[in-house]
Please model this.
Amino acid sequence: MPDTTYPPSAELAANAHVDAAKYDEMYAASIADPEAFWREQAQRTTWIKPFTKVKDVSYEFGNVSIKWFEDGTLNVAANCIDRHLATRGDQTAIIWEPDDPSEDAQHITYNQLHSNVCKMANVLADLGVGKGDRVVIYLPMIPEAAYAMLACARIGAIHSIVFAGFSPDALAARVNGCDAKVVITADEAPRGGRKTPLKTNADQALLHTADTVKCLVVKRTGGQTTWVDGRDVDYNAMAAEASDQFEPAEMNAEDPLFILYTSGSTGQPKGVVHSTGGYITYAALTHEIVFDYHEGDIFWCTADVGWVTGHSYIVYGPLANGATTLMFEGVPTFPDAGRFWAVCEKHKVNQFYTAPTAIRALMGQGPEWVQKYDLSDLKVLGTVGEPINPEAWNWYNDVVGKGNCPIVDTWWQTETGGHLLTPLPGAHATKPGSAMKPFFGIEPVVLEPQSGEEIHTYPCEGVLCLKGSWPSQMRTVWGDHERFEKTYFSDYKGYYFAGDGCRRDEDGDYWITGRVDDVINVSGHRMGTAEVESALVAHAKVAEAAVVGYPHDIKGQGIYCYVTLMSGEEPSDELRKELRTWVRTEIGPIASPDLIQWAPGLPKTRSGKIMRRILRKIAEDDFGALGDTSTLADPGVVDELIENRMNRQ
Ligand code: WTA
Model:
């Protein structure tokens, strides 16, 4: 627990949307009468037909149902574009910064955004996409990614973005998972000076999907080679001919807006479904309040639109607020470790939102990369994706923020749609490493893991759950409502179970301690250990595999694999390499194993259950306190694994 807290400057607090007194007042009101609170907050959204009912929520296991503003109608694209045209048509909506700094940035005004989104909507409609149809987006970080999202929203089609770093297999699984009609991709994705052959990946994926799936190809580099007539469609040619008008569809508040696949502790990734009215209201509200966004500010979230952070805080939240949002195609270290700060200076960024893994990587390069640039426009810094260690927090605060920019450490999830725990920049004295306070309407509880009882004492530690709902909560797992209920509402009845552990300190502030399930967080990317395991055992030479996380200086967690080979197979460094490549092809480079230990046997209970607790300890190089190993079928395997462990400190 740190001694130091960091209060906002008096100047920032004086101009902030929410100061300390207002937070207390609004938070209390949001809990005392959520219906009244959200009725008022939802007025920021432009409704076609206003809602009369605020919410209808049941967390009862077997009967979970979440509805917000259910009799209202609206269109999200109209909220993000059309309603701004009269007042800010010529204002920049999106600043696009390409991977290569010598290529020109683009400034896309709200008028241009409108025209481009309508063209994309017309192209999709020509391909037969209508209300409720699914469209998979597999694009680089280019403006067309935002056009595609908003075009789907305009039509009332449901988008599912697949991160461009995912493999063809992962793409195919997601296309099939939601029966998509169209996949939107680009020829190539430039990133960090290299090019990922996106269209070639899509070609491979489409071999494993229905023949009717169309492939809409956006030109990015011009590096396209193959073309399948009748299936592939040239976006740029069609858009050139398309009308720049498209009537936004009237959608019900509870119609799905998008699906986003995310990893869980069991089985294959699940399609998280977000709805329309509640999602846009909450994304916009949190964007404005948490980053203290003011008219004219330039907002930059460095995430990829393939993750929920990019959905809510590059596209939907900022554009619903009529903001200027920056979209960056590249990586923090290309062409050098000063790129983030060069972009901040170049575009006069006011709010900057990134992940701890990027901060740690840049911290290692030294402060001079930051000091070369004028960062005087920065006002608020944000972090998301994993717990931030105090050392990285302090560096962010001192070197990047020069002690003048409050840091908002925002805890949330794909499932939550928007921030749930975070300090507000003008209201709270922050603590390095703490996600601090619940946002309006959010009621966190700390439960005793075994009994599920609420802990009311301070300080305390346990599992983090949420009481009650908020508008941008996920509604279901696509095609599998039972899995939705089982994952989030069955372990602790009556609560939403987030899967994270937390500590609440004597002041009532929250500290996230990490996942309590078999999900690991590698460079802020969520991964199910089960997914990596099933990729490994799909290899012909692998008999069995167990995967756990271990502390990694830059990535937060690294991927540690215990692999038992088929009898007759010889372990070798070559085979390690082969398995690494194998997992990259099965899932994608983000799932690449860091360490592979050959395990002649795995520690199992007599009933055959792998004792992951022990494997985690060995991977952490902390095997002094393994706990009780007497229930193991063969306690001897543990000594062997310790003897040959990979991660010696
Ligand atoms: C972790 C990303 C600590 C957490 C928005 C959560 C965090 C998972 C933080 C969700 C934070 C996210 N501090 N941990 N500020 N933010 N996490 O779905 O374990 O990709 O459950 O959503 O990331 O990851 P997801």
In short: The longest strand covers residues 542-552. The radius of gyration is 24 Å. Residues 3 and 561 are 38 Å apart (CA to CA). The chain has 21 helices and 30 strands.
